[in-house]
């Protein structure tokens, strides 16, 4: 447990939906009005993409503030990196985040289709094909003793949960039902066989589910 | 607001008491069973003095985990540093924390009685005589762009509040009444003219009061 694998600030609806089924360039989350799930994070002072000096410093800010603390690498699925599927046809695509991605560490993008690593500002993207345990080993080495963030999307998180590789999860449950889409869980109780859980709800109405290994 | 002055993990009873009136070497907080106020912090995985690998990773851990994040200096009152009063008679006293103090930054101890600076591991203690604004200026320079933690005790925090120098406060209110002692406040509502507040209570029963400037 020296180097934790951590799910952080992962946003779902009350019925467990984290993304729609039809991701596109215009709708990265495949959801209408995704701010209904993610708006709480953007309202905080420590949101990584914030450029002004404003924002709240209450409970929700402790979660966004923790985003980079002691994190040395991120693992993400290809669908978090971009909307393309199959072999890379457009190597000009360098992610959703512009010239200054918020990760500032090595990022391991899981894909069966290789492409060369590249760097943007302090972030370097590597494209790796392997099972979760193999990719985690690579990410831990790159993290140099720090923890590894498991960035999502939902399919990737489920693969790592199925392989029992996740040490802690912070899942932010928004007070709305989406009905259809990609689900993290049918119920958060599914994780209680392996994890402790604490749920805390602040003024924003977001229920923060905090899980850590038993 | 680039370099915040932050009160963090400051523990009081429901009636606002943070310390007893009779501090001694045996009772640094001048309270019987001070663990009733502070025990929640020691139970977390990220408590700075923890040496084993255990501890909880729920809500309370986000607060202890935040202890060192982006903190470049601490300011404390003399009574947090030690039980002596008046001119220093025992320069062998180097604080309560042994050879590895948890601060790992410059620490400015406010006292009218000078003594030479000294270092223990990554922490350097300076002894400074000045009003809160002057000491804060020194601490901000030492913090090199990072925030400054206002470590207490209660008298010191009140001095900085009176001078309107505090940017954020996290006060952990334990569910017990102590009746007598040094009080941070008569009521937390006293701060609402200048601060936003959110209160969040987790499984431990501690009510975390989070204040940030309006």
Automatic annotation (TrEMBL), chains A, B:
GO molecular function: 5-amino-6-(5-phosphoribosylamino)uracil reductase activity
Protein name according to UniProt: Dihydrofolate reductase
Pfam families referenced in this protein's UniProt entry, alphabetically: RibD_C
Domain of life the protein comes from: Bacteria
GO biological process terms held by the UniProt record: riboflavin biosynthetic process
Domain Bacterial bifunctional deaminase-reductase C-terminal: 41-186
């Amino acid at each position: 447990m020296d180097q934790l694998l951590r799910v952080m600030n992962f946003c779902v609806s009350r019925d467990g939906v984290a993304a729609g089924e039809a991701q596109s360039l215009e709708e990265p989350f495949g959801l209408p009005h995704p701010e209904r799930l993610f708006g709480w994070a953007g309202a905080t002072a420590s949101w990584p993409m914030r450029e002004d000096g404003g924002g709240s410093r209450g409970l929700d800010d402790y979660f966004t503030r923790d985003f980079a603390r002691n994190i040395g690498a991120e693992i993400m699925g290809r669908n978090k990196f971009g909307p393309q599927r199959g072999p890379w046809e457009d190597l000009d695509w360098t992610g959703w985040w512009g010239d200054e991605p918020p990760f500032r560490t090595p990022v391991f993008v899981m894909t069966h289709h290789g492409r060369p690593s590249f760097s943007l500002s302090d972030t370097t993207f590597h494209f790796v094909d392997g099972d979760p345990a193999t990719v985690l080993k690579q990410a831990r080495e790159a993290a140099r003793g720090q923890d590894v963030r498991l960035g999502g999307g939902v399919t990737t998180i489920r693969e790592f949960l199925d392989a029992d590789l996740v040490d802690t999860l912070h899942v932010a449950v928004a007070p709305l039902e989406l009905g259809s889409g990609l689900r993290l869980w049918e119920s958060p109780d599914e994780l209680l066989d392996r994890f402790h859980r604490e749920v805390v709800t602040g003024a924003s109405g977001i229920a923060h589910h905090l899980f850590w290994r038993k």
